Every structure is written in structure tokens, then in C-alpha cells.
UniProtKB/TrEMBL annotation:
<dbReference type="InterPro" id="IPR036365">
    <property type="entry name" value="PGBD-like_sf"/>
</dbReference>
<feature type="domain" description="Peptidoglycan binding-like">
    <location>
        <begin position="189"/>
        <end position="238"/>
    </location>
</feature>
<dbReference type="InterPro" id="IPR001387">
    <property type="entry name" value="Cro/C1-type_HTH"/>
</dbReference>
<dbReference type="InterPro" id="IPR036366">
    <property type="entry name" value="PGBDSf"/>
</dbReference>
<feature type="region of interest" description="Disordered">
    <location>
        <begin position="95"/>
        <end position="132"/>
    </location>
</feature>
<dbReference type="InterPro" id="IPR002477">
    <property type="entry name" value="Peptidoglycan-bd-like"/>
</dbReference>
<dbReference type="Pfam" id="PF01471">
    <property type="entry name" value="PG_binding_1"/>
</dbReference>
<dbReference type="Pfam" id="PF13560">
    <property type="entry name" value="HTH_31"/>
</dbReference>
<protein>
    <recommendedName>
        <fullName>Peptidoglycan binding-like domain-containing protein</fullName>
    </recommendedName>
</protein>
<feature type="compositionally biased region" description="Basic and acidic residues">
    <location>
        <begin position="95"/>
        <end position="105"/>
    </location>
</feature>
């Protein structure tokens, strides 16, 4: 069955029908939310399982970038992704014209002016809202949110005081904290992500300092012989401003071929385990709840990396990771060393 039949572009009349079509695409993929999140990340998109579950559980029109991330993770061809977005934009324009006044009235308490309602601020420390807006206003709304909630996040951090920030491209980012860390949001994080991408690391440039950004910061620190903290301080920004580039990682195709050659007894099993562990991303770094880190294709722990007598940079090398996995496989006779629950 070809892609066009498997994942048809919806002819949706409502946002609910559009979301229902996305649910069907996810169902047909046969992938779990965790697997989809890994695939999306490998393709350069940000799609946490919680975000995906929320999107598919609602009847509101989802954000464009979330739609793109899901379709990319499901392997939808680019030409069909464009058609999905066209359908979404048509719906957004139509629903925006029909329901804008009604939705504004519903959100404003009786007797309250729209000016008062518009000035209600979210509580500090909560995730910033992501309101849907008619297409012409969407770009400006996003820029405003980046600026406003960047300030709110800095305030919520408490101990992080605004300082004269590090310069990355010769012009300072006004109002940035001394240290950027996971959970922050705003233009300072956006700047960090842009320069990580420029230095050879694929990461969603969305202004959110999430696990993907933490992972890429750790990779840059490992290759730069910096303390691997997962946070961005002045020293990291100085390195980002230099000429250092992270070596290009292996493509998924190259990794698959190398795995099959290295594990001729069970080539499919080798690919399956590596995909489950890291999404076939040799630069994947996972941080557990206890702070322990796992590195590379086969997600070797800090303790294992130390026992093997290598540094973090080596642990991110695809050839080393596959070769070490083969040594373990030869001793144990299988992939029981790894426990990856999809």
C-alpha cells in the first residue's frame, strides 16, 4: 500500500476532524509516543510524548510545528506534509474568521472589559500558554510571547540574576541570566539554540530549554573538553563564539549498514535495540531522574564509560559505541545487557 493511501491528506471541515486524521496517521504508524518522540528528535523536531498525547487528545487545531514533527516521525513524504499544512492553514483562516468574536466573548468574564482580560498574567513558574491565533497575528504573537515569558522565567528562577550577558555574535542579549538551564524559555534560549545549530548540532530552535537542548549542550561540552553540566554559562557562550565545530554525526543509513555488518548473526535485532535506545542518534545523551547520564547509540552510562577507560567524546563516537556493543554481545550471547522498553 503506498503512502498516499496509507496516510491520506485530510479533507477536514473542523479542527476535531483534522486531529482525528492525525490520530489515524499515528495509529497506522504502529509507533509508540516514545518512539515517535525519538524519531522526531532525530529529524530535528521537538515532540515530547506529553505534547503529542495532549495534541491528539484535544479537538483544537494543533500548532504547525507539532503537526510537522508528528508527520516527519511517521515518515510522511514532504509533499504530503505541505498538503497537510495547507489544509491546516485553510481551517485556521476559516475558523478564525467565524469564531474569533465568540471565543473572545467566552474567555472574558461577564462585566469585565476586554482590556482587563487581555492584561491577566499567568502565574510565575507555570509553562507559558500557547494560544492559537489567526494566521496574520501568529508571527507577532510568538515574538511577543518569547519576550514576555523569557522575563517571567528569569523571575521564577529566583537565584538567577540578570547580568550583562555573554556575547555570541558581538551583540549582547539584553536581560539574559548568568546561566541558562533546562526549563527556561525565551529569546535567550532561542539564541543558544541558533548557535548550537550553527556549530553542527541539530536541535529544535523553539525557545524552550528542554531535554533535547540539554543533550546538545552536553555534546558540545564533551567535544570542547568543557565541564559537562548541561547548562549554558559564559564559558560555553565564549566557545560557541569561536571556530569550534562539532564533527558531523553519522547518518541513520550509515549507522544501519554498520550495525548489520557488525552483527551478522542478528542484524535486525541490532538495529532495533539501537533505535529503541537512541533513535539511531549517535549524539543522544539521556539524563536520568537521579542525574546519571547515558551516552551515544547504545546509551552507555557514566559508570560504563569510566570502566571502559574512555572519555565522553569517545562515547559519542558511533563506531566505538557499536564496537563496544559487539564486545558485550559476544560475551553475553545476546542483547540482554540493554533493557529498552518502548
Amino acid at each position: 500500500m503506498d503512502d498516499a493511501v496509507r496516510d491520506p491528506v485530510p479533507q477536514a471541515a473542523t479542527a476535531g476532524e483534522y486531529v482525528a486524521s492525525l490520530r489515524e496517521v499515528r495509529r497506522r504508524s504502529g509507533l509508540t509516543y516514545r518512539e515517535l518522540a525519538r524519531r522526531a528528535s532525530a529529524a530535528g523536531h521537538w515532540l515530547p510524548p506529553s505534547t503529542l498525547a495532549t495534541m491528539l487528545g484535544r479537538t483544537a487545531l494543533p500548532r504547525e510545528r507539532t503537526v510537522v514533527a508528528l508527520l516527519a516521525a511517521c515518515g510522511t513524504p514532504a509533499v504530503e506534509v505541505d498538503r497537510w499544512l495547507e489544509t491546516r492553514r485553510d481551517l485556521e483562516a476559516r475558523l478564525g474568521e467565524q469564531g474569533r468574536g465568540e471565543s473572545d466573548a467566552a474567555r472574558t468574564p461577564a462585566g469585565a472589559s476586554t482590556t482587563v482580560a487581555a492584561n491577566i498574567r499567568p502565574s510565575v513558574g507555570t509553562a507559558p500558554p500557547r494560544p492559537e491565533a489567526p494566521w496574520p497575528a501568529r508571527r507577532w504573537l510568538r515574538l511577543a510571547l518569547l519576550a514576555v515569558f523569557g522575563v517571567l522565567t528569569v523571575g521564577a528562577a529566583g537565584a538567577l540574576r540578570p547580568v550583562a550577558p555573554p556575547t555570541v555574535d558581538g551583540s549582547p542579549t539584553v536581560g539574559c541570566p548568568e546561566v541558562l538551564r533546562q526549563g527556561m524559555y525565551g529569546p535567550c534560549v532561542l539564541r543558544l539554540q541558533e548557535h548550537l545549530v550553527a556549530d553542527g548540532l541539530t536541535v529544535p530552535v523553539d525557545g524552550w530549554f528542554g531535554p533535547d537542548t540539554t543533550s546538545r549542550v552536553m555534546v558540545f561540552q564533551a567535544f570542547g573538553a568543557l565541564p559537562v553540566s548541561g547548562t549554558a554559562d559564559e564559558r560555553l557562550f565564549d566557545e560557541l563564539a569561536g571556530d569550534r565545530k562539532v564533527p558531523a554525526s553519522w547518518s541513520e543509513d550509515r549507522i544501519g549498514k554498520h550495525l548489520r555488518r557488525t552483527f551478522p548473526e542478528d542484524p535486525a535485532g541490532a538495529v532495533r535495540v539501537a533505535r529503541c535506545l537512541s533513535g539511531l542518534d549517535p549524539y543522544r545523551v539521556e539524563v536520568g531522574e537521579d542525574g546519571a547520564r547515558r551516552w551515544g547509540l547504545f546509551q552507555f552510562s557514566d559508570m560504563e564509560v569510566s570502566r571502559f577507560g574512555v572519555d565522553r567524546q569517545t562515547a559519542l563516537d558511533a563506531a566505538w559505541s557499536i564496537g563496544t556493543a559487539r564486545e558485550i554481545w559476544s560475551r553475553t550471547g545476546g542483547f540482554g545487557h540493554w533493557n529498552c522498553a518502548a
